[in-house]
Amino acid sequence: MNIKNEIIFISVFLSIFAGLLVILFEGCSQTQLLSIDVASAAYDCSQEDVPFSIYYIDRDSNFVVESVSARSEIGREITLEISKNSLTPILIEFSNRDEHGFHPKTGFLYPITTDFSKAGAFCASVYFKLFLNSTDSRDQIRKFCSYFNWKRFYEKVCEYENPFVLDEELLCHDIASGNFSAYSFKIK
Known about the structure:
The chain is α+β, with helices and mostly antiparallel strands. It contains 7 helices and 6 strands. It has helices at residues 3-27, 38-44, 70-73, 118-133, 138-147, 150-157, 168-177, and strands at 31-37, 52-57, 63-68, 77-83, 88-94, 105-110. Strands 3-2-5-6 form a 4-stranded antiparallel sheet. A two-stranded antiparallel sheet has the order 1-4. Helix 4 crosses helix 6 and helix 4 packs across helix 7 (168-177). The longest helix is centred in the first third of the chain and has 25 residues, at 3-27. The radius of gyration is 22 Å and the shape is globular.
């Protein structure tokens, strides 16, 4: 091989090697971006032009609350940076009150579902109560919660027209103590 061919070979080799490194490091990322369609959240709660708050667990296992002015956000997506391969509860609470005096809520459990619903909001609310009321580290809480069957819990909660009539405290207590069963689903 002459010098010119060696230089071409080395430059091609380095280009391929650099490309593989980029793919490798992108695949090892522990975070991912999740886009939320604000219009579908507002539609689920029949809310338009109302300020709201988004609650979620970020990539560093921090509980995050973001207040959003609905006028500026309806019709566009909000992107959240979350932990890859971890259950992430998303809860949106509107600032106005419904006919019963409660703030309308919608949400979902990613990646179980990305459809906004009352059932998703209730599941997210239970997760947040477990997360915020524990004395363990955030990573320990997330690990503990990863052992719970949230998919099956979500499916059961979907059976209720308004899951917020359920005794959320009892559910949280039973999940945290390891005594969760079908009997944990009781109306307040």
